[in-house]
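Lab notebook, page 48
Experiment: co-folding of the full assembly
Goal: obtain a model of how the components sit together before planning crosslinking
Operator: M.T.
Materials (sequences as entered):
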Amino acid sequence: MSCFLTKSSLGKKLVMSITGAFLVLFILFHMSMNLTAILSPDGYNAICRFLGANWYALAGTAVLALGVLVHFLYALMLTVDNYRARGKQRYAVTVTEPGVSWASKNMLVIGFIVLAGLLLHLFNFWAKMQLIEVLGGHASVVGGHTIAATDGAALIAYTFSKWYYVILYLLWFAALWFHLTHGVWSMFQTVGWANDTWYPRLKCIANVVATLVFLGFAAVVVVYFIKSCCPCCCGA
Amino acid sequence: MNFTLKIWRQKDAKSKGAFETYKVENISADTSFLEMLDILNNNLVHEGKEPVAFDHDCREGICGMCSLHIDGQAHGPSQGATTCQIYMRKFEDGATITIEPWRSAAFPVIKDLVVNRSAYDQILQAGGFISVRTNSVPDANAIPIPKADADESMDAAACIGCGACAATCKNGSAMLFVAARVSSLAKLPQGRVEAARRAKAMVAKMDELGFGNCTNTGACQAECPKSISIAHIARLNREFLSAKLED
Amino acid sequence: MGFKLDAKIPAGELAQKWSNHKAAIRVVSPANKRKLDIIIVGTGLGGASAAASLGELGYNVKVFCIQDSPRRAHSIAAQGGINAAKNYQNDNDSVYRLFYDTIKGGDYRAREANVYRLAEVSNLIIDQCVAQGVPFAREYGGLLANRSFGGAQVSRTFYARGQTGQQLLLGAYAALNKEIAAGSVKSYPRHEMLDLVIEDGEARGIIARNLITGEIERFGAHAVVLATGGYGNVFFLSTNAMASNGSAAFQCYRKGAGFANPCFTQIHPTCIPKHGDQQSKLTLMSESLRNDGRIWVPKKLEDVQALRAGKKQPSEIAEEDRDYYLERRYPAFGNLVPRDVASRAAKERCDAGFGVNETGLAVFLDFKTAIERLGKDIIKQRYGNLFDMYEEITDVSPYEQPMQIFPAVHYTMGGIWVDYNLMTTIPGLYAIGEANFSDHGANRLGASALMQGLADGYFVLPYTIGDYLSHKIQAPKVKTDTPAFDEAEKGVRAKIAKLLSINGKQSVDDLHKRLGNIMWEYVGMARSKESLETAISEIQKLRKEFWQDVKVVGRADDFNVELEKALRLADFLELGELMARDALVREESCGGHFRIEHQTEEGEAKRDDEHFVYAAVWEYKGPDQEPELTKEPLNFEFVHPAQRNYKD
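Observation: model returned without errors.
Model output:
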């Protein structure tokens, strides 16, 4: 059975589907956590403390990293197969077939953008929070301010006061939106939980999830950016 | 009507191919696409040139012999139709039409627009059947089958094995073809007996022959001349995974 | 000299003949079957089912087809259905009734014993196909559904939407795949049989051309089975697939196999009319449409003029101004009369000037009444795909306006002569399905071709071939390096070289179209002594022209479609003449063969049972020689030939 997960086309896709589902669940969790930062920066920091360098958080991070890694490596593996299967000679003329989404045909490219965003995000936040703690530190100096590893809210406030981060993060979320519109219903298809009645529903669910994720994440970015622009009117 | 045709010419499997441009004139709008190619070929013969090789046979959209990637679409601009069912009224007068063979590593070109699709036969030989001997069967009405199941089985069985699915798939995946057969038999009680074995054997053969992996773009169902749904791919996935989990 | 024909019909009561015969013939033991080779040419319903069944029995089978896969054989295009005497509808159907309808439908020009056997095994076919996973239409209770077809007053036709032939062929092809996987059958796609090899008077193998490489290859076997379908493409325009041809059968005829009733051609009444001279083939609209469609032309000539000028839409013509001529002439069967009757009636109306399109060669098939009675949804369910196909081709929606239809060549009842065992006049050479002549007489009923192909392949040949092969168990593997193979191959190579060397001015298609015109004009739906004599001399002239002026480009050792077509046309040019000769000798009208000299006052076909109750079997006598006719008398022991009556 283990062999089928690495060798069979359907086995490999099953791995993509399961890791994908896991990542989607994580993203939804992360998004809810972020929303707390809008309502209550203190509440958010409480969560940050809870998810610091504790053993369970570290274990979670490791599993998460593994999920991302497997999802990424399998994507590369499948893409290499597919590239070979396509043959050397390509069509001179191609069109997008009716009913076929742009995202579905560009998942790898979108995936790379998502990954790039992830690296930026790790640099901006994770390196200054969990990583610092793991290395035994308690705070880091960011743009001249010293920010405690457990003060996620301050880190958010600082990062999204910079217009270029705002743009980069919004682009990242947009890429994620595309990735999820195809990925979410696709994982149901891959494990076989789909049929003609459910396609419209699954695609609707996928769009709703993708849009929620986009709005949820973007809200934090936008709210904090606005706060940084005019602290008075936002009451901060 | 008049047309300019850009057609892929390739001497044989080993040679390098290239596009050549031809003109056809005075084509009636009621002429079918393949009849238009017949006219071109007849002209070429009269000029002492080799006609363009292309596959075709029944010209009714059922034998699955005709192929052709026309202006970027498998079986040309109509949905739910084969190349032989395309009529020239679908094109604008004076249009330039690009005609290419199926392009997929598993379908090597034999000559011009003719490709070798024997990989599909091999997949079916791996398990696309119910193992019954001639004459050792029960009465046809011995097993009632719900109408909905029989209808769904028929939806999948409508596959003509033309290769458009793999040819159009950006991954060169034959999943829709394999799924159509697996699903058609899996929906019938007669086919359930070997369902697990069939799904595994056919998928293994498909992988072995170098077809790509499905990424659920749905391009296959859009180009399938029989409009076979990717719901059958979902069923194949289900059949295959449940079979594997029992191993 | 002629043939000494022995049909080998078993003695005894009609219903007992087949079981008696099976009990009497010899069988081959499993150990010996492994030593015996069988070649099957063609992978339609007959060829695929025979190859699968024989492989399963343990013989070594080699199966050949000209397409890229066995699944593409033209059986796949059959739309309507397959008959069987199951009596699932409780409408008093029986084996005897199916037998009787078939022999009557064939206008009493088929063998009683063969037709009875066909009806007898028809039920097994349905069982077999269901077990293979053929998704026949079902009722809500989960049991099989049926519909009616022409020439029958019971509902005995099983169907899978409008794709019955496809589904049955996929069943047989799946069975074949199972045997290919098991190694008992070896498949040779894209191979065309170009000659039959005979040694010591027995069939020993074939010469085939690999259509990809152009190589000429030799294959030996202890028996050869011809399952190559019909020769309707002699007419150029027909409902047959483009590559359907009569060449394999013709080579067998040339080598000594009798060719029976070549003139019996079926003209199918419901095809889409010809649109112009760029057309390559005609498209059939399933006969099942006649279940709900009503055929008519206007009663008044001024309406005809208005229609042709586009001044009136057919739907604007009032009910009382319509002539539902089939219902008028044949009240008992109405629109469901057999094909030959329906086709001739259409021709009669068009000849009288009532043809409804510009060419004057079309009648209406109207669903207005059915849509009113059943609703558009039910009609869509039943015929949706056919309606869509019609609209795609003609740009007219049959939901809004009636379809236009006209008869077209569809099937050839004639073919290689076979005895009750399906063996030809050459020992060891068998012919099954449309390639033989045996079961349909002068006209085939709808949904019976599929039945015959599968009956022969699954249930008849696997038994009867054993009788012959039981005498071959000591025979060694057939060697292909013998003088007989050398000579056959030499002949094939010479023919190819000759065709490539002519380098004339006319393309194969140009000449084929001209042959088609001659055939349709003079050997078509209505034939006369004069027309047939004209046809013979015209075809002879055209044949001469072909061998002097054809232009075949390309090489012999290459994928060369022009060469394939030229080889086939060379044989059509001979077959066409043979058909005309046969039609000339048959001085009567029966089934699809209509001689205008022989008709009743009402214009119905007039049979001559005193002089023509026989199968005409032709023997090849050499190039440009007149073939010789031998008659196989048909003995009607159990049914009495009567004037076919579809009126009351």
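Interpretation: Chain A has one domain: 2-85+103-229.
Next step: discuss with group before ordering constructs.
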